[in-house]
Amino acid sequence: MSKIIKHYLGDKDVQLILGALLRIGVLVSTGIVLLGGIIFLIKQQHEVVSFHDFRPEEAKFSSVKEIILGLKHFDGLAIIQFGVLLLIFTPIARVVFSIFSFLMERDYMYVLVGIIVLCVIITSLYLDIAH
Amino acid sequence: MTVLLFTIIVLIGAFAAGLLGSLTGLGGGVIIIPLLTLGLGVDIHYAIGASIISVIATSSGSAAAYVKEGITNIRIGMFLEIATTTSAIVGVIIASQIKADYIIVIFGLILLFSAVMMLRKKIDHSNNEKTSVLANYFKLNGSYPTPEGSKPYAVHHVLGGFAMMFVAGTLSGLLGIGSGALKVLGMDNIMKIPFKVSTTTSNFMMGVTAAASALVYLHKGQIDPAIAMPVTIGVISGATIGAKILIRTKTDKLKVIFAVVVTFLALQMIYKGLTGS
Known about the structure:
Chain A is an all-alpha fold. Helices cover 76% and strands 0% of the residues of chain A.
């Protein structure tokens, strides 16, 4: 009986940490997007924009490398994109965290399930689909 | 249009999308995409990129509240994520192969389907007959808290549910939406998971699924920071306020009005796709 209770408490802890992880991830990334947005608006608010045609060749900050490079120049758009990147990584961090919690529970089948999901996401990181 | 004006319009629209999305349970993407394409003439590729980001934002934001309540079944979520993440990438690949006009038409059709699903009366099919061999093997059966104590439930038709998630994931990757309507359909009707568990678990899966396709869209140059910024901020603030209103408001009437608006938007999207205008 005591074993069951222990297991349940462990599960509850994991859920609480998981919830906090997601909340902090969303808060921090929104904050960064907001900061980048303010810098971008101060500098470029009067410029004219049009997204009428899709021009991928003109896309700035479409890879992790470009985003980091832009951050060094304190570029507003690069900061926004960094926040967006953090937002994308929030649910991925959740998967990593779940893998560890299943490992602690010695539920190796779900450690494997988690690793498969993670591998699929990592694949997407390196997938280069031409238009 | 100047940067400032564009930002303000998208910010207001995204706020409304986040608010209505959380009040009606439809999610933000279905409103963000018509707003950007029909309203502001933004190319569908950029609209999809911005929408997928809003899906991650709302999913992570509300999942944080749900996991705390202990209703989400993380095993079901993880297990089905194998299907949704793989198929999301398939969806993105399909999107890069077909004409943009087709994507717009498919989006319109999914929008119509979502409107119908929103109005449909939900029937709880859940029971506790542990008959599925796969559900037992993958330890998918669970229990959730009710005022009368913990209530156990059994999961059924695992393969059927898995197949449905594959469809949901493909559409999520193809259109940049959360596919919540399809996910809940698969979990409620096929796998017979109780509402409370299926809604939160589907939301929980949405972020991970969207993350897989968002990374590909980022590399393809479809996520433009100038659009992503007002969309993210608007949707998150709208969804947060919506979640607070939801606790003390009945949304039945709102759902009917919203279904009419969504149907109208859907028809316009289909028209736009077919005429190529």
